[in-house]
Structures are given as C-alpha cells and as structure tokens.
Design goal:
Length: about 325
C-alpha cells in the first residue's frame, strides 16, 4: 500500500514537472514571437517617417544619392512588413501538409528581402552613372544635413534593437532586418560626407550613389547566403554540438555520437545523428539508450532528435 502511494506520488510529480516545462516552453515561444512583431512594427513606423523626410529633401535638392537613400529606407519598411507577416505565419500550428510547422516562413521572407535589395542596388547604379554622365553638381542645404544625421542615429538604433531581438529569438529574419537598418545607416553616413564635400567636387553625388549600391549588394549577399544555407540544410555550429555532446556525456551511456545534420523550422529544431553503441546489447537496450538521449535533448535543449544506431564492432572494421 505504501509502495502504491509512493508510485502514485512519483507519477504525479513527474507529470506536474512535465506540464510546468511545457508551460515554460510555450511562454518562451510566445515571447520570441512578440519580440519579432514589436521589432517589425517599430521598423515600419520609423522607416516610413524617415522615407518621407529623405525623399522630400532629395527631390528638393535633386540629389540622386539622397533620393536613392530614401528608397533604401523604404525597402526597410517593406522588409519589416515581411517580418510582421512572417511572425504571423509562423504562429500557425503544424498540420498534415506542414508536419514541422510554418517556422521556415522567416527564411523565405529573408530571401525575398535579399532579392529586393539586389533590385534596388542595380537601380541605384543606373541612376548614379546617369548623374556622373550629366556632369552636374548638386547643391545641398542645412536641411539635408539635419535630416541625414537624424536618419543615421535612428537607423543605427533600429539596427541595434533588431540585432538584440535576433540574439534573443535566434530569428534569421530579424538579423536580416538588422543588417538592412545598418546598411541604411552606413549609406546615410556616406551621403552626409558627400553633402559636406559636395560644394568642392561636382562628382561626389554620383560616386556616393555607386558606394551606396555596393553596400546594398553586400547586405543582400549576406542575407541570401545565410537564408539559403538554412533552407537547404546546415552544419550545426560548434557551440550547439558541444551542448548536445555535453547532454549525452552526462547520461554515461557509453555511446559515441557523430554525423550530425541540423534542420531549423523557426523555433522548432530537428537534429539527426548517428551513435556508435555496444554490438552486444539487445535491441531493446539499444533503443532505450537512444530514447533517453532523445528525451534529454528535448527537455534540456528543446531539440527534437532522431538517432541512428550503429554497432561499435562495425565501426572497428573501418
């Protein structure tokens, strides 16, 4: 009777612990998604204001660099809108057609942002070349200086917030949006230098347009490389592998993990790998060890693992 009571109490305690862990995980996922939405709306509002101000000054002065910089800011608003849509889509639960959920929406959105940046960069190059061919200088005013400085400070603040949110959520699209803000801030710095030197060199505006385009191309390359790598599958980083191996070593199951493959679906992570295991174990014992590893990785690192078992004697033959 006492034994039965203890067993029931133990079962209740385990079940309670599991429910608490699930609640904590759900709250963590919700917090991450809220951060993505907040960053998106802050960016949309801030960029829309900056776009209007910079476009106004660019049209008044006739500056290609300022006008191009304004449209660069407008693409930030568009990309931030994609961030919001992505965050909304990723909330949809897994279904029969999407068994791993909709978490990769952010990667698809990042690719869209990268391609959008490429298109804008090509357009800036065309306008800058036309400006250089015309041989005309641009006359700036104090208003252009003030608006450009405000843009630099505002965009860097947005970039820092996006990078912080990306580190908290491990969200690729937030990192992409942060780089979008950063390149806009850098392009505004270049434009500011041009404004200050514009009265001396007539060709400054056209050259600055070309430099802004190169910055945009680099940002596009970084975003597309990171997003495409994750879409087609990536090698787990050393920090993640050390965490996984640490969890496995702590279990003292006498197995050797290797051959890791990582697949990210937003907040959902799928990890497949092989383990060398004693060939003398029964199938049940080998399965139990693999199951314990999968459970600990799920509980401690929030990783869904799939393990392929290999007999150690087979390894010795190679």
């Amino acid at each position: 009777m006492v034994a039965g009571t203890v067993c029931r109490h133990t079962t209740y305690t385990i079940e309670s612990g599991r429910k608490v862990l699930e609640e904590i995980t759900q709250k963590s996922v919700k917090t991450k998604r809220n951060l993505v939405l907040i960053e998106g709306w802050v960016s949309v509002c801030g960029n829309s204001v900056l776009f209007a101000l910079k476009l106004w000054v660019g049209l008044i002065t006739g500056s290609v660099a300022l006008t191009a910089d304004a449209w660069h800011t407008m693409t930030d608003s568009i990309s931030s809108g994609i961030v919001i849509v992505s965050a909304w889509m990723s909330r949809k639960p897994a279904d029969d057609e999407h068994p791993f959920g909709h978490g990769r929406t952010d990667l698809v959105s990042s690719v869209i942002i990268g391609v959008l940046l490429l298109m804008i960069g090509f357009e800036f190059i065309i306008k800058a070349v036309e400006q250089l061919k015309s041989g005309e200088s641009v006359h700036y005013g104090m208003l252009a200086v003030i608006i450009t400085i405000v843009s630099i400070v505002s965009k860097e603040v947005m970039a820092q917030y996006a990078f912080w949110a990306a580190r908290r959520t491990r969200n690729t699209i937030l990192k992409a949006d942060g780089w979008h803000h950063r390149t806009d801030a850098l392009s505004s710095v270049v434009v500011l230098i041009g404004i200050l030197c514009g009265s001396i060199f007539w060709w400054v505006d056209g050259v600055l347009g070309l430099l802004v385009a190169l910055m945009i191309f680099y940002a596009s390359y970084e975003i597309l490389r990171d997003s495409i790598n994750r879409l087609i599958g990536e090698t787990p980083d050393r920090e993640l592998l050390q965490s996984v191996e640490g969890v496995i070593d702590a279990l003292k199951l006498d197995v050797q993990p290797h051959h890791f493959h990582l697949h990210r679906y937003g907040d959902h992570i799928e990890l497949t790998f092989h383990i060398f295991i004693d060939a003398g174990l029964s199938l049940k014992d080998a399965h139990d060890r693999a199951h314990r590893i999968e459970k600990e990785l799920r509980d401690q690192l929030d990783i869904e693992a799939t393990i392929h078992m290999e007999p150690r004697s087979e390894y010795a033959l190679h």
